[in-house]
């Protein structure tokens, strides 16, 4: 990219709010250098903008110092990325006129490379212990499978996801609603420093800019566009994480949600997504099955077993013939199992050895300790009778 165009984009990043589609159309039609020159020269308003809005942009342009901002990001060991750069993620073009003007980045990784296999984990700031645990587990599982975890570095689910990734030395990307040199929230300063050392801090806002409510909302569109899919781990009905979900769905990305207790208001938003359009997921393997390459399938989990599930069919029929209470003679047991008395006697002997039944004179009954023995049978791998 020509140096003049990069300088113009750096200036516009200081002047324009993220996601401004009107400015995005100006960039497509006129180019960043022409748009910046119109603002710097205090020229007539460009098409489609009110006089008040143009006046506001001119006021901001008066204080824009792109050379200083570029020097600042260099001092931080970062860089300013523009469309067309080798490190620029091509999938951001899906945002159309709302695509970022440029991105300020800190960290050793290539944004384009790590975003090739990336999943967003988002959710409530005031999350429950359950939500934080699930977010960390999902992040850990994704990183162990070679995926990048993307989130917003906020309290709650975001922070848990970043920490889960860092715990296994995985790559995590924090997309910020402020400058990459601003620690927000302040309590996450150490976390942000750790991410910058091993992953990436990414922002549309120039260095030193602070977050606003609208910038948080617009930040979410970048999270959704960077990744192959978004997982809502825990969210109330009015959670900001649902905005990321809407962007993901609108961009054609995979949308997933984790179920929680139906009595928890912090799961209500996730449950609504599952009812409407999101895929229910509970582990990293299920996420990868959706967003990964063909053939990356989640292994089916083991079915829950009780000891009698391990019995051979003939032994199970004899066991079923015994009443829950009381005793029966051999003849009645054979009749109930629809087999011969000799076969029933043999199977009863096996069941007795395994602790399922016991003999009482000429009768048989279920062993009072059969539940306890069931655990022993499973643990020892017996039950072939």
Q: Describe it for me?
A:
This is DNA-protecting protein DprA. Belongs to the DprA/Smf family. The chain has 385 residues and is an alpha/beta fold. It folds into 3 domains: 62 residues, no CATH class; 202 residues, Rossmann fold, CATH 3.40.50; 74 residues, Arc Repressor Mutant, subunit A (Orthogonal Bundle). Helix content is 46%, strand content 12%. Helix 8 links the parallel strand 4 and strand 5. The radius of gyration is 31 Å and the shape is elongated. The chain starts with a helix and ends in a 5-residue tail after the last helix. The relative contact order is 0.09. The C terminus is likely disordered.
Amount of beta strand: 5-15%
Overall mean pLDDT score?
Answer: 91
Question: What is the count of distinct domains?
Answer: 3
Q: Name the poorly predicted regions.
A: 371-385
The assigned structural class equals: alpha/beta
| Tally of helical runs | 17
Shape: elongated
Radius of gyration: 31 Å
Give the helices and strands as they follow along the chain. Answer: HHHHHEEHEHEHEHEHEHEHEHHEHHEEH
The CATH class label of the largest domain is: Alpha Beta
Output the CATH topology of the largest domain: Rossmann fold
CATH architecture of the largest domain: 3-Layer(aba) Sandwich
Distance between termini? Answer: 75 Å
**Into which percent range does the helicity of residues fall?**
40-55%
| Biggest sheet overview | 9 strands, mixed
| Strand arrangement, major sheet | 1-2-6-5-4-3-7-8-9
Number of strands: 12
